[in-house]
Inverse folding.
């Protein structure tokens, strides 16, 4: 999908419909229509994460071909783009949230960026049923396994050489709600620019 088509769809289609059509119910852009490759990739990642592959999907520019981030000026997915993965796992969400809640004093022994991310979860991410692992994976009990999993799939075609980021959602409703809210905000920012 090109930039103009994405912007047109963002402003004309209901946010929930956009999320369904362009994020969840399609073969992600990076897989160039190769369903078998996408399924095999998810199977490999699922085995490494100990998560059902059906609970894994791609979001962001790797999914749509265009970054849905207005701060990136709706940049086209390119050679330097990363791969954002949504993982639905109530087990891993609960382990992560319990760890973050029970180990609050540990946050004073981590770097400032990790501490800021930790704080952001208490005030926002957890409300949406998500754990953004980009800064926190290194401190979570299953973090090393997940870092290794990201490294393994980061060497597979077509994600080879790319950074693979993962975000945990407690359930599919949380995944849908988080991304629908993001598309609503994005849509409002596009409409107010015009």
């Amino acid at each position: 999908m090109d930039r103009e088509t994405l912007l047109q769809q963002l402003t004309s289609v209901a946010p929930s419909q956009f999320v369904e059509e362009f994020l969840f119910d399609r073969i992600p852009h990076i897989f160039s229509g190769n369903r078998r490759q996408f399924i095999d990739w998810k199977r490999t990642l699922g085995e490494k994460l100990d998560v059902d592959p059906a609970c894994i999907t791609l979001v962001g520019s790797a999914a749509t071909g265009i970054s849905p981030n207005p701060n990136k000026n709706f940049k086209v997915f390119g050679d330097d783009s990363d791969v954002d993965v949504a993982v639905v796992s109530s087990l891993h969400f609960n382990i992560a949230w319990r760890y973050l809640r029970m180990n609050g004093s540990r946050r004073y022994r981590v770097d400032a960026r990790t501490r800021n991310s930790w704080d952001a979860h208490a005030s926002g991410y957890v409300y949406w049923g998500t754990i953004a692992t980009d800064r926190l994976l290194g401190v979570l009990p299953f973090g090393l396994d997940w870092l290794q999993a990201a490294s393994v799939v980061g060497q597979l075609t077509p994600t080879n050489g790319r950074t693979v980021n993962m975000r945990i959602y407690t359930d599919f409703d949380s995944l849908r709600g988080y991304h629908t809210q993001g598309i609503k905000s994005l849509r409002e920012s596009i409409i107010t620019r015009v």
User: Anything to note?
Assistant: The chain has one domain: 3-95+140-193.
